[in-house]
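Lecture 7 notes: from sequence to structure.

We start with a single chain of 431 residues. Read the sequence below before looking at the structure.
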Amino acid sequence: MTDQTFAEPDSSAEETPAIPEKTKARLRNILAGGQRHSAGAVQLIGLGALRDRLGNRWDSVKERIYEQTERLFDRYLPPSDVWLRADDANYLVVFATLDRQAAELVCGRIVSELHRLMLGNSDTHQITVRSIVTELDGNIAVEATRLDQLIARAAQQGVAFSQNDATDVGDARTGPAAEAQDSDIFHPMICYRPVFDTSHKVLSTYVCHADEETKRILNALSTDDVRSEDYKFRADMEILIQSIEIYEDLYKNSFRYIQNLTVSFSTLSIGRHRREYLARCHSIPSHLIPFIVFVIQGVPAGVPYSRISEITTILKPYSRAILVLLDDGAPNLAAFAQAGVRGMGITVHGGEPEARATNRLHTFGSHVQRHGMIFFVDGIRSATMLRVAEDAGASYVAGPLIGQDTDVPGHMKRVTERELIQKSAKTARHR
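Now the structure, written as tokens:
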């Protein structure tokens, strides 16, 4: 068989300049066989299919694709794994500990995410995962497998594992096989909702949250469904990661706004989820922290002060403020205020009787303000409820009347209530 060992890239070839020389040296040494025993698996991530689908657009967007690929490496690979752009359309990835199957699933997820980001879809039948294997004669060969085949195989093994080890369901559903199966059906997406500052008459804040399809999937899961907490966590991570990446790009272009990030109470309460979430928070650029606000959702009734205080303490270093959004109920507001929560809000539900909503807003708003916190309202759909919210003391309001969900945040702009109402009516007529 022909020797397929990779040659060292030509110095004139395009390489990512930020890759440390010691990383390149380590990769080449591993591929040459000098430290092969220390590598769990070696994978080849190819961009050829993406290049073919993009056609003439490839040259104009390939730098963006490289940047996005390397962001995904940062997201999915631990520091012990190393990677190198080998040529115009291929990356080498060396996994320190994962075996071949697990490494294939990770790479498949990265390539699938790339296709979704750049093409708007990720057809697993068209995505190929390639593994580098050493043959008996010492040569290096490349073996390719379609992603849908990998997922099917992993799903079968995941079911067998769950049946044989029912006492540890947590590990069964978070292993590579189960994660691959879930990732094929749940792709959390984000969007932005504008917020109206009632005092200064300005749209200066955008809430980054899960889009309607993602929320539909999350709401369809019962609280005792083993996927519920994991799905919420994955949605929270997507919100955090994508919003910070987008803001960083906008910041470089002198774009400024206050960015609210929704996060589930469960994500901040479950140890393994909290650790990963905070690790990602730690990578938020320091110049963005003054613009970041966390909005905690799904806080259960009767949550003790100690838990709220713990959560606010761990989030404070990464934000300008922490808010809590409740669906309903009357929590111990004094505990939230003492714990350092800056504001409390409630949602006006679609179809909720106007009289009930009015009573809720006035009652809750007065209690929130009595404890020195900001009062805000989500779900504003009519001019009447906008006036009710303002009369109840709401400093910030959001909802369909204020503005529809968008893919990216908009510029800060001054606007009056009348202009918001007119714009909403015009939008409704053109639907």
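The chain has a mean pLDDT of 79. Keep this in mind for problem set 3.
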